[in-house]
Amino acid sequence: MGKLDLCQLPNPPLPWWETVLYIGTWIASAIYMTYSAFKISQEYVEHKDVSYGLDDGWSFLGRQKDVTDSEWTFWRDSFYGTYGIWLCGQILLGQLLQMPSLYPKRKYIFVVYSVLCFLSLVGFGQFLLIIIEMAIIFAIIRFTASSALTWTVSLTFLLSLNVRTLHSLLMDVGLLVRQPFYVYLFQEFTLAMTVMRLVSFGLFNCEYRRRIAKAEAPSEPTKKTDVPETDRTPENGSAERTDGDEWQNVTEDMTKDMVHASMRVKGEQKPAEWDWQRSAFSCSTAEQVIDLCCYVFYTPLIAAGPLMNYDVFYKQFHSRLEKWSLARLGPIVLNIFRWTAWSFVMEVLLHYLYSGPMIYKPSLLSGLPLWGITGVGYVHAMCFVLKYMIIWGLCSTIAKFDRIYPSDVPSCGSHVYLYSEMWKNFDRGLYAFMKRHIYVVLGGSRHGLFRRVISILACFGFIYVWHGLHHYILIWCFFNCCTIMLEMTADIIKSSSHFKDFEAKYFSPAMVRRLHSIVIVPVLSVSSFSIVTFFSGLKSGRVFVSRLVFEGFPISTILQCIVMYVFIQTGKEVENYQARRQHSKVD
């Protein structure tokens, strides 16, 4: 394989000077927005009568720091406190259980350890609530194998966390306890993540049982043989075979072959998928409960995530024992140092960029200059991405000691210009969950446009329920859905042969790229404002829209469109660079 052909690049190349212009302009814009946010932070801290969102920082820096992000504050303190101790214990225990004599008992010991960790961090009431949820899911699996009922019950669990009346009811019966705000966040997020894991387990199990029922359904009766019952031998089908276990295995293999044949005819799951489901769900209920507890309470991923579908976790957890090597240990150790260093960077940024106190105060936002309010939004978004990169990065790295490999950390958001790509590359675990259990199940892109639209609406409906039934979440989900629909419509138009012929006839490839980037600008604008609304709430979101779109029209609007166009072109160049890099690795 040689050099990557230009036609194989994701985007047509531009003249070198134009590429340099776009990249240089975007870097300069990002630097200036960050500087504007820093300058405004300096002015904010100089107002002695304003103290919202600031607290004493590191003494050697001699500055206050932004403490408005309660989620980051809690996780930082947890990683370096009680939760960090449990994680260190998880690493040591996991390595001890690598011993061949202990490895077969690993999941039982992990369950005990993980439950003790959960009880110390969350409490008995929440643990009992999860046990009740697990019992209900198992009852559904055993008696109905209904995916619809599994979803109904699981969504009810989620609503109990978000609807005030149901939440109060759980408190009244002692399943939820009033806690300090930081602990409350941990409990709510842990319970929400638990519900999603139960959904994944339940849906895979129901799917398995439905396939078994289809495979064992009565077919055409077989003809009776003329061999007398007493004269039959194992070779001609006798039930008197003495090796009962072997005969049971033969019968199971025959059933498996029947299911494989049925799946091949119907174009359903591959036999490899059946193999893991047969291993996971054909065992006793007690063993399934142990496997589920390993999945639900696994210490490194219990609350922060990232989320793993049950099939991925089960296959990795039950993989063969693997000896340590430098090639395996080196990246894990380096990543621990890497994410620890980034957490230090995050803390330093919070000492110099006070985006939180301003973005949550509409009265402060409304008085900021154009570049200042843009800088505050940009810095806040980048810190949000960095926060989850650190949290998920540390948790994933610790899980890798046990050969559990969650999804990758979020990609840097400074070059992602399509919101569909943002969904794929930010919370990859959540994306995989929705794709497997919602989008594909409802038809996705395989059964026409209408089914695809329904699948997208269902995904964002779930996001709305999972994140909490708030007005700003509803608006965020609505505009998310609209931008995804617009991108889908554009893809359909671009993929049509008539449109391709029109572009090829009248425009050069470089001009087509420029025109596509111009079309993306309004979609990116809508996406950006919806993200700001998600970060800051409805009031601050209105301030951003008012200041950047209406009050400064047309200057602010034109400037915003130019910056976004440059950002899109830079993102396209990053895509080309990543394609070349991937090609060179394969080569």
Helix content: over 70%
On the 0 to 100 scale, the average pLDDT is 80
Topology order in helix (H) and strand (E) letters: HEEHHHHHHHHHHHHHHHHHHHHHHH
Q: Given the structure, what is the number of helices?
A: 24
Share in β-strands: under 5%
Q: Rg from C-alpha positions? A: 28 Å
List unreliable stretches of 5+ residues: 222-269
Strand order of the largest sheet: 1-2
Number of DSSP strand runs: 2
Dominant shape: globular
Rounded to the nearest angstrom, the distance between the terminal CA atoms is: 6 Å
Q: In terms of structural class, how would the helical and strand content be classed?
A: mainly alpha
Question: How does this structure look, described?
Answer:
This protein is mainly α. It has 24 helices and 2 strands. Strands 1-2 form a two-stranded antiparallel ribbon. Strand 1 and strand 2 form a beta hairpin. Helix 3 packs antiparallel against helix 4, helix 6 packs antiparallel against helix 8 and helix 18 packs across helix 19.
